[in-house]
Write a structure and sequence with these properties.
Blueprint: H1 2-29, H2 34-54, H3 58-63, H4 81-91, H5 97-109, H6 123-158, H7 163-177, H8 180-191, H9 215-253, H10 256-263, H11 268-280, H12 282-286, H13 288-299, H14 301-306, H15 312-322, H16 325-353, H17 359-363
Length: about 375
């Protein structure tokens, strides 16, 4: 198993390089880069200023700048090519694409992710600033999903085919069919002042009077703001884990060692939790790291946008929309690396839960 772990660690840099290269190429082919957006923003501001001057009073009309006999506003004639070159130099686009990629990867190997194009803050600082919100969503959602799905899956396996199993299957089907962001919109409409009730806040992770609250009040305010987004993520994510737990238990319950344990007269509870539970929980427990990453950095993006939670998901969305490449590629590099490491941890967790599983021997 040690040799397998070493091989996986050695493959991480190559995999990470491939991920960054593919995304870099895709971004280069996409229209509307940061230089184009900055030029459009400057020209838009110039055009707006020209409109305000043209629509003003006589004194403003008399004071607007003129260019020869035409009397036109200079900003409407386009930008000086030298100024455009200066903008390209500021964003680092005065170099060929391959040189920019090599320079970027060299910096990333030193964990130097640079600064945001539009905020005077380092990418690392931005991520650390937004991380608590995403960690709050990811940890609480994952914890509640496991606390709900595992007991429910076990109960469905024990009562397979019963009315309880059929009734709870409807909830599982709904959880499969409806994505979490639709549940989020429904919760806002019903409970956050959308149309019916105003029981929960709509925006942020804390209230405006957070600093004035007592310790108990801060805890209550924190969970009050988390209630709806976490509920939306739990409803949208519990179905697959519930069915995985049920199917794992059903598979183990029908094996010969369970029949033998029952034949020896062991109580059903001891058979279920003393023998079946460890084997059935192998897939569920070992998948915890990857499940956490999935909820933390993927599943909560739309939830953060809908509830205006200033986390990693919202940061990534804003970076894509504004073409803030340092933030886009910096977060991609960090979370890809984290995902690769946690996938390795998941494999090692399989071996830890059941030493009979050895990926190294399987490859050999």
């Amino acid at each position: 198993m040690f040799a397998y772990a070493v091989r996986r660690i050695a493959l991480i840099p190559l995999t990470l390089f491939g991920i960054m290269l593919v995304n870099f190429i895709v971004v280069q082919l996409a229209p509307g880069g940061p230089v184009e957006q900055m030029i459009a923003r400057i020209e838009g501001q110039a055009g707006e200023a020209a409109s305000r001057i043209a629509g003003g009073g006589g004194d403003i009309q008399a004071s607007r700048p003129r260019d020869g006999a035409q009397g036109s506003y200079r900003g409407a004639q386009g930008l000086d090519p030298a100024f455009v070159k200066d903008i390209e130099r500021q964003f680092g686009f005065d170099k060929p694409a391959h040189e920019r990629f090599v320079q970027m990867m060299g910096n990333y190997l030193r964990f130097d992710f640079g600064k945001s194009f539009y905020r005077d803050v380092s990418v690392t600082g931005l991520v650390l600033e937004k991380m608590p919100v995403s960690i709050s969503l990811g940890l609480w959602t994952t914890l509640i999903i496991y606390l709900v799905s595992i007991p429910l899956g076990i109960a469905k396996a024990r009562r397979d085919g019963s009315s309880f199993d059929l009734a709870t299957s409807w909830a599982v089907v709904v959880g499969y069919a409806v994505p979490g962001f639709l549940f989020a919109i429904l919760l806002i409409v019903v409970f956050a002042g959308g149309r019916y009730l105003s029981w929960f806040p709509l925006r942020g992770l804390t209230g405006p009077d957070w600093d004035q609250l007592s310790t108990l009040g801060k805890v209550a305010d924190y969970f009050w703001h988390l209630a709806l987004p976490v509920t939306a993520l739990v409803i949208g994510g519990f179905a697959s884990l519930t069915m995985l737990t049920k199917n794992s238990f059903l598979e183990e319950i029908n094996k010969q060692y369970v029949v033998t344990a029952r034949a020896k007269g062991l109580p059903e509870r001891r058979v279920l939790y003393g023998h079946v539970f460890r084997n059935a929980m192998l897939l569920v427990v070992a998948g915890f790291p990857s499940a956490l990453v999935g909820i933390l950095f993927a599943g909560s993006i739309l939830i953060e946008i809908i509830f205006s939670l200033d986390g990693i998901g919202l940061l990534g969305f804003e970076a894509v929309m504004s073409r803030d490449y340092p933030v886009m590629f910096g977060t991609l590099y960090m979370f890809s690396l984290l995902g690769l490491v946690l996938n390795l941890i998941s494999d090692l967790t399989y071996h830890f839960v059941d030493p009979r599983i050895d990926f190294g021997k399987r490859e050999g």
